[in-house]
Amino acid sequence: MSKSRYLTRRPVLGALAALALTGAMPLAQAQGNFPSKPITFVVPYPAGGANDMLGRLVGQKMGEVLGTASVVDNRPGAGALLGAGIVARAPADGYTLLVGGLATHAASPHLIKTEYDPVKDFEPIGMIGSAPIIAITANDSPYKSLKDVVEAARKDPQAVMYGSSGNGSPLHLAGELFVSIAKVPMTHVPYKGGNAHIVDLIGGRIPVIFDTATNSMPLLRGGKVRALAVGATTRLPELPNVPTFAEAGYPQFEFSAWYALFAPSKTSADVSAKLSGALAKALKQPEVVSKLRDLGVTPGSGDATELRAFVPREYQRVGGLIKTAKIKAD
């Protein structure tokens, strides 16, 4: 190659390199300035419930940490799959996040055909928290302990029913888990969401419910129901006189509703790290800790690595329970 020809090509190659660098700058600059606009938190449930309150609380506090506004978008439907699907298909820029959990990433995908893969189509941001299962009964119920419930069921398999908010709900899954561990027949009575199962429990038409702490703590504080056992490793500070399932003789019972934050898959590592860091900081704020505990939620770490390892295990565990119990969607 002649010297003149080489000199002719050098400016061309330099121009091409500069052009490539210029084309890459907007993406790098956008990631470096993240966030530069409000972040949307998609809650796959109606407004007013525990998931909605969690989304609004976490969204507000993360926005304050990141220096931006937050918007909550309620997208209920299809066992929480509708909202999750919207986030799975959203641009992977960190501006659309999912307040997901047990339903979106462990239960509903085994019950209803999904348009997303709960493991592959999301980038874990961090665990918001978990709410243990609490076995509750009516105040005038003859059952004073889990042992009383089990003994009654063994005497008459048709006598003891447990209610839930629907097939495949956390309440139903918890009940089936307890039935399998206790090896006792109990009849599941599914309700079509709402509070009908609670109304029937208080009215004595349903003997027991394996409810989440988010749902049952307000009832317990109001003196409307009585707790038999809590599905936590230790007794809850709010319920010091209520034994754990392990203390009641069922140490294998481990089941909690859990809540976590997800971004679409392929969200950049830098953006994901910023979001995870903001979540972790928010979860350490005394005001957030207090409000989460008021909701019956034990605050999580906000660590992405922890959530990334947890989701596949939980997906397989809950899927196995659904298969073994032959649970079908409503």
Largest sheet: 10 strands, mixed
Overall geometric form: globular
How helical, in percent, are the residues? 40-55%
Q: Span between N and C termini?
A: 75 Å
What is the chain-wise order of helices and strands?
Answer: HEHEHEHEHEHEHEHEEHHEH
So how many helices? 11
Subunit arrangement of the protein? single chain
- Uncertain residue ranges: 1-30
Please state the CA-atom Rg, rounded to the nearest Å. Answer: 24 Å
Beta-strand content estimate: 15-25%
Main structural class: alpha/beta
* Overall residue-averaged pLDDT value: 89
Count of β-strands? 10
Give a verbal description of the structure.
The chain has 330 residues and is α/β, with parallel strands linked by helices. The chain is 45% helix and 19% strand. It contains eleven helices and ten strands. It has helices at residues 3-32, 50-66, 81-88, 102-111, 146-155, 170-182, 196-202, 213-221, 269-283, 286-294, 304-325; strands at 39-43, 70-74, 96-101, 122-138, 161-164, 187-190, 208-212, 225-230, 256-264, 298-299. Strands 1, 2, 3, 4, 5, 6, 7, 8, 9 and 10 form a ten-stranded mixed sheet that branches. Helix 6 links the parallel strand 5 (161-164) and strand 6 (187-190). Helix 2 (50-66) crosses helix 9 (269-283) and helix 6 (170-182) packs across helix 11. The chain is globular. The termini are far apart. Mean pLDDT is 89; it is low at 1-30.
